[in-house]
Amino acid sequence: MLARVVPPRARLTTPDIRLHEETIEGTRSGSVHYKFSNSHPPQRTVVLLSGWTCTPFPLWGPVVDRLAPKANVLLVENRGHGRSSIGSSNSVTYLNDVTDDVQRAMDHAKIERALIITHSMTELVARRLHQTTPERMTGRISVSGVFGNPLESWTLGNSGIIGTAARMISAGLATTPGADLVKGTIAEIVLAQRIIKRLVRTMLGPEIHPELFGEFMRATGNVPIEVIDIALRAMLREPAITEEHDYTVPTLYIAGRNDPLVCPDKIRVNGELVVLDHVRHAAQLEDPRTVVRHIEEFAQKHGIFE
Fold first, then answer.
1. pTM to 2 decimals?
2. 20-301 CATH, one of 3.40.50.1820, 3.90.25.10, 3.40.640.10, 3.30.1300.10
3. pLDDT in tens, the chain (306 residues)
4. Residue extents of the structural domains in the chain
């Protein structure tokens, strides 16, 4: 019998990489926190954005370990995550607000153009960036990107446990659109937190190192429930589409064959597509070596870092 070959587990490492941290204070727009390494020519710059319930570290940690020695790396904390405040965001404005935050961070770090790499929900942010300021993008890489309403694009669809769980999280909000989940009963909040943990666990493959998995789950648990609610409802407002935005910059889509949330076979990608057979919804954690290799090959092919 043939044994299944899996990549080495991604481990936590402590490379000699200096990441400068800044918080941009704001009023209505909220504060934006970012981390930036700046030791390479400006054209060798990558912006890393995180998905729903995720923070840049540890989500992108194993990739930063391998990529920062070769390129400048900017990691922006999504609105309401980590040290980025939620401001006055709501489900109507959230994705546009996150898009503005990314541009504010790029401006503050004096980044004119960059390779934008997104995960899951922030595919929707990249689309907005391209619609407003395509000249700031040297290229686009999407890891397990969500193209529209997740309940329509997730593999298990509306009847599976993922879709059902997401509907439970937003239960009652359809009839009371001004309500926030945080204003629900304690029982409802606890149930929602348990469902979210189940969703996140389903996203991750078994190859992740236990220490890294534990750090990821702790970081997810620190995201306020009202922020998770707002971000989910923002995605649910998106149209149900299965086709990627028509980018005018080089584009690469990295998908997991075993992704329980997004099925790459059902998505028409406007660009290059790489499907990794052994990963689920977080290739950057499950197989960072392969992800970085594809990033470097893509950048070299299109002259992005030259």
1. 0.83
2. 3.40.50.1820
3. 233 333 444 444 444 567 888 889 875 668 999 999 988 999 899 999 999 888 888 889 889 988 998 999 999 999 999 889 999 899 899 999 999 999 999 999 999 999 999 998 999 999 999 999 999 999 999 998 887 666 665 544 433 444 455 555 555 444 333 444 444 455 555 555 566 666 666 667 666 777 777 777 777 778 887 888 888 888 888 876 545 557 889 999 999 988 877 777 766 667 889 999 888 888 998 899 999 999 999 999 999 988
4. 20-301
3-state secondary structure the chain: CCCCCCCCCCCCCCCCCCCEEEEECCCCCCCEEEEEECCCCCCCEEEECCCCCCCHHHHCHHHHHHHCCCCEEEEECCCCCCCCCCCCCCCCCHHHHHHHHHHHHHHHCCCCCEEEEEEHHHHHHHHHHHHHCHHHEEEEEEECCCCCCHHHHCCCCCCCHHHHHHHHHCCCCCCCCCCCHHHCCHHHHHHHHHHHHHHHHHHCCCCCCHHHHHHHHHHHHCCCHHHHHHHHHHHHCCCCCCECCCCCCCEEEEEECCCCCCCHHHCECCCEEEEECCCCCCHHHHCHHHHHHHHHHHHHHCCCCC
